[in-house]
Amino acid sequence: MAYIGTTHGKIILMGEHSVVYGYPCLALPFFETKVIAETSTITKGQTLYCDFYKGDIQHLPTSMQGLKAVITESLKRLHKENAPLNITITSSIPIERGMGSSAAVAGAVVRSIYHYFDAKLDHNTLLSLIAISETLTHQKPSGIDALTTTSDKALYFIKDKKAQWIHVNLDAELLIVDTGILGKTKEAVHDVASNYHKASIQNALKTLGALTYEAKQAIEERSVETLGRLMTEAHHALQHLGVSSKELDHLVTIAQQYGALGSKLTGGGRGGCMIVLCRPNQKQSLIEALRPHANHIWSILSLIHI
Ligand code: PMV
Q1: CA distance 176 to 107
Q2: pTM
Q3: Using CA atoms, how far apart are residues 18 and 223, in angstroms rounded to an integer?
Q4: Distance 141 CA to ligand 1 centre (A)
Q5: Tens of pLDDT along 243-260?
Q6: 145 lines ligand 1 (CB under 6 A)
Q7: 141 CB within 6 A, ligand 1
Q8: Are 245 and 266 in contact (CB under 8 A)?
Q9: How many CB atoms lie within 10 A of CB 274?
Q10: Average pLDDT, stretch 259-265?
Q11: CA neighbours within 13 Å on the CB side: how many for 183?
């Protein structure tokens, strides 16, 4: 019998990078992309099957050391270090696109292992286990990926504080546009940290924090024009931080030329995805304009009642 654990992708609406420095972040669960992990019994050994690896968990490649550490720690906490088992991971979250793939995979695996051993798993334990992998992936994770990929609601998050669930009910749609280029979260987070001593970087982070706070108010007031304007301003601040790319900038320019309410990169940047806020009746023309320059476009059909 297989014991399943699931999680989903996430989209940062506002506040990536600045969230690492204690400013707020607005993030949405992205249910269109999912991870399913299944733990099952085998006669001996501990194995893992996914698109990138098939074999002994002890021999996972360097790029998957975060996941290995999460599995090892989960089994240790359950006193099942040597239990024979196989974990199979199926994911529709593209990797390194700013959608929280690594946190979602770790979360689904932990849920599946705990399910397999019929052990209770509270949300804080789950988040602390995912943090093991996220810290290995990039040293200063804010925790936003772990929280959003394991939660069903939109959230307003400040690092090390209790997250606040927010009710999103907007007459607008969100397009998620994949450049097809791998994002570079680790490198981007590292570069922002190395340049933190510069006043221009601190100002850009502060601006992102203020824009995110205003965006929360715009959501509460259901003002989609204001939210869109703040998103585009955030993209410019992210450019100042040095975490955009020419492909992301190009997509933002096209979205604005075709009348989007707002657009910006999402996630770690330097590749990965950008998002476009638009009126429902603008969606089709925006998709047509962006499609030739994108690898894939998802749409969150509506931002009503998230
Ligand atoms: O690229 P992603 O999906 O891992 O998003 C990273 C978000 C950052 O703010 C850049 C980093 C963090 O830990 O919050």
Answers
A1: 23
A2: 0.92
A3: 23
A4: 7
A5: 999 999 999 999 999 999
A6: yes
A7: yes
A8: no
A9: 30
A10: 98
A11: 27
The 10 Å Cβ neighbour count of residue 222 is: 14
- Burial environment of residue 280 by CB neighbours within 10 A (0 to 12, 13 to 18, 19 or more): exposed
Identify the pLDDT of residue 98: 87
HSE at residue 262, side-chain half, CA atoms within 13 A, is: 23
Q: Print the SS3 string covering the chain.
A: CEEEEEEEEEEEEECCCHHHHCCCEEEEEEEEEEEEEEEECCCCCEEEEECCEEEEHHHCCHHHHHHHHHHHHHHHHCCCCCCCEEEEEEECCCCCCCCCHHHHHHHHHHHHHHHHCCCCCCHHHHHHHHHHHHHHHCCCCCCHHHHHHCCCCEEEECCCCCCEEECCEECCEEEEEECCCCCCHHHHHHHHHHCCCCHHHHHHHHHHHHHHHHHHHHHHCCCHHHHHHHHHHHHHHHHHHCCCCHHHHHHHHHHHHCCCCEEEEECCCCCCEEEEEECHHHHHHHHHHHHHHCCEEEEECCEECC
How far, in Å, CA of 206 to CA of 210, rounded? Answer: 6
19 lines ligand 1 (CB under 6 A): yes
CB 85 within 8 A of CB 41: yes
What spatial distance separates the first Cα and last Cα of the chain, rounded to whole Å?
A: 34
Is residue 192 over pLDDT 70?
Answer: yes
Per-residue pLDDT tens over the stretch 108-154: 999 999 999 999 999 999 999 999 998 887 777 899 999 999 999 99
- By most ligand atoms within 8 Å of CB, the mutation choice from 7, 189, 205 for ligand 1 is 189
Atom from ligand 1 closest to the CA of residue 101: 3
